[in-house]
Design a protein that fits this description.
Helix content: 25-40%
Distance between the termini: 12 Å
Largest sheet: 6 strands, parallel
CATH class of the largest domain: Alpha Beta
Shape: elongated
CATH superfamily of the largest domain: TPP-binding domain
CATH topology of the largest domain: Rossmann fold
Number of domains: 2
Strand order of the largest sheet: 5-4-1-9-10-11
Number of helices: 9
Radius of gyration: 18 Å
Length: 232
């Protein structure tokens, strides 16, 4: 029976592929206050601005590719049952070949009805004002904004709670509720934390069996994957 490995990935994973991290040092996301483009209040204030922002992110996504870190995690599936729980809204894990992915914060390549949240559509091009769902409601990005529930959180907790090993990569573990996930790991589960500048804050430092590796995703993940294949 294959062992279960759960990966918690964040913005730093995609940054190595050329996608800017969610929030720069100045607190802005691509020059915008995050609440302007990632909150229900921002949406109702200026729908055109929000749609344009995500249309640009979607266009950018077409110009980048998975990096060696993404590819190594996909290769891990040949030896283990792997679940990738990501805070990223891009599809780089999918394009690298990972097959079991939970997107905590939504998906850039999908749209959602504003009148019936269960209506979700594939979306590879721009969303415009006037683009409507089958019920006649304006379409919005399929993104979990600040102040909204995280519908995939329970599924993510279930995966973490039965993990044999956890890999945290490209995330500072400071955004909740995602930051709380590692706390659901089984008591003796090893937790590997890969980041070029590990943020050993309260959420991380309180974890047991923590192995911190100061490295990039594209370099540190392939190394760890080889190690896990050889030792687990």
């Amino acid at each position: 029976m294959k062992k279960n490995i759960v990966v918690l990935s964040g913005a730093g994973m995609s940054a190595e592929s050329g996608i800017n991290t969610f929030r720069d040092n100045d607190g802005l996301w691509e020059g915008h206050d995050v609440m302007e483009v990632a909150s229900p209040e921002g949406w109702y204030k200026d729908k055109a601005l929000v749609l344009d922002f995500y249309n640009q992110r979607r266009a950018q996504l077409k110009r980048v590719s998975p990096n060696l870190g993404h590819q190594a995690l996909a290769d891990l599936e040949q030896h283990f049952d792997v679940c990738v729980i990501t805070q990223n809204v891009d599809d780089l894990h999918e394009r690298a070949g990972s097959s079991h992915i939970i997107h905590l914060h939504g998906e850039l390549l999908k749209s959602q009805s504003t009148v019936d949240p269960s209506l979700v559509y594939d979306c590879f091009d721009d969303i415009k004002l006037g683009d409507c769902c089958s019920s006649g409601g304006q379409l919005r990005p399929f993104i979990v904004w600040f102040g909204e529930e995280v519908p995939m959180l329970v599924s993510a907790i279930d995966q973490v709670s039965c993990a044999d090993a956890i890999i945290i990569v490209g995330t500072s573990m400071q955004v909740y509720p995602a930051a709380s996930l590692a706390g659901y790991a089984p008591k003796h589960c090893p937790i590997y934390y890969i980041d070029p500048k590990p943020a050993v804050n309260s959420a991380v430092s309180q974890l047991q069996n923590l192995d911190v590796r100061e490295d990039t995703a594209s370099n540190g993940v392939p190394k760890l994957v080889k190690e896990l294949i050889a030792t687990m």
